[in-house]
Amino acid sequence: MRLMNLLMFLLCCFLSCGSDDNPTDPPKEEPGATVPEGYSLVWSDEFDNTPNRLPGNEWWFETGNNGWGNNEPQYYIDRVLGNDTVAKVQNGMLTITAFKLATPHDGADIISARMNTVRSWKYGYFEMRAKVPGGKGTWAAFWMLPKNFQSWPLDGEIDIMEYVGYRPDVTQASVHTAAYNHVDGTERTATRSAPGAERKFYTYGLLWTEDEIAGYIDGVKYFSFANDHANNKNTWPFNEPFYLKLNLAIGGNWGGLQGIDPNIFPARYEIDYVRVYQQAK
After folding, report:
1. Can you spell out the DSSP letters for 205-240?
2. Is the pTM of this model over 0.90?
3. Which residues form the signal peptide (predicted)?
4. Run of H or E including 11
5. 197 with 174: CB under 8 angstroms?
6. Burial of 144 by CB count in 10 Å (0-12 exposed, 13-18 middle, 19+ buried)?
7. In whole angstroms, what is the distance from residue 161 CA to residue 44 CA?
8. Which residues have a Cβ under 8 Å from the Cβ of 280 and sit 6 or more positions away?
9. C-alpha–C-alpha distance, residues 21 and 75, integer Å
10. How far apart (Å, rounded) are the C-alpha atoms in residues 96 and 268?
11. What are the residues facing 40 on neighbouring strands?
């Protein structure tokens, strides 16, 4: 009986292995990743294999506590302050964390991170897979500013993803220009339902060409801003290289519209990857 059982076990192993001399694992599934046809990966940060568990030299950090144009109370830190790490890479994930301090730092009792790519690009498809923090007061963003930025909003801003915690399960994409800047009905923005965005990962994308800027969530297009081809910087400043930005703000004119819940801390913004694709020249 034991011999028969052994023979049956060996037969099952043989059948399950099959006859493929070069078996391969199935590709890693990334729901929502939709790269336009004809576009190839030119840059990415997968947040893997980081020895010191901190973002590397592909990123630079803005620091300080000057309200950032929105009366935000947080102080942005370069990666680490004391025992608090505001930008950590671990287990293939970047986590930006906003902390409430027991002892204020330079007059601020909230710290977080605002990080930027060293590189910049003109046109392309830009994508991030992330899970956002919730609660009143949180304001997570994935956005772009021009490399040679001098004046806002004249030089333009592209918001790939913004999420404010007082408005759960809703994401937003926008552009800002001198002519279209949330004044007197000139908004150029759109929202999209993102059920469970604080509990699961979504893929946020943006396709930027010389004719249009389009926003996506899990491959679904929900925002579009067309180039009027008037050669007017006030309406279309998007013909220069832009760099990518990741940050977690707290409060401010928009994020704090309904106040700041003291129970949100530590607030965590988790990013699986950031990728940039461009058409072959």
Report:
1. EEEE-SSEEEEEETTEEEEEEE---S--TTT---SS
2. no
3. 1-18
4. helix 2-17
5. no
6. buried
7. 18
8. 38, 40
9. 57
10. 6
11. 278
Residue 258 gets which letter from DSSP? Answer: T
Question: What mean pLDDT, rounded, does the chain reach?
Answer: 90
* Confidence check: pLDDT of 87 > 60: yes
Question: Any idea which residues carry the catalytic annotation?
Answer: 157, 162
Interatomic CA distance for residues 8 and 111, integer angstroms: 62
Q: Which amino acid, residue 160? A: I
- Please state, in angstroms and rounded to a whole number, the distance separating the CA atoms of residues 153 and 263: 34
For residue 212, give the nearest of 202, 199, 225, 201 by alpha carbon.
Answer: 225
Q: Does residue 64 sit in helix, strand or coil?
A: strand
Quick check: 133 and 248 in contact, CB under 8 A? yes
Low-confidence winner among 22-36, 162-176, 197-211 (lowest mean pLDDT): 22-36
For 196, counting Cβ atoms within 10 Å of its Cβ (0-12 exposed, 13-18 middle, 19+ buried), the class is exposed
Q: Which domains, ranges and CATH numbers included, belong to the chain?
A: 51-279 (2.60.120.200)
Q: 184-232 pLDDT, tens per residue?
A: 788 899 999 999 999 999 999 999 999 999 999 999 999 999 999 999 9
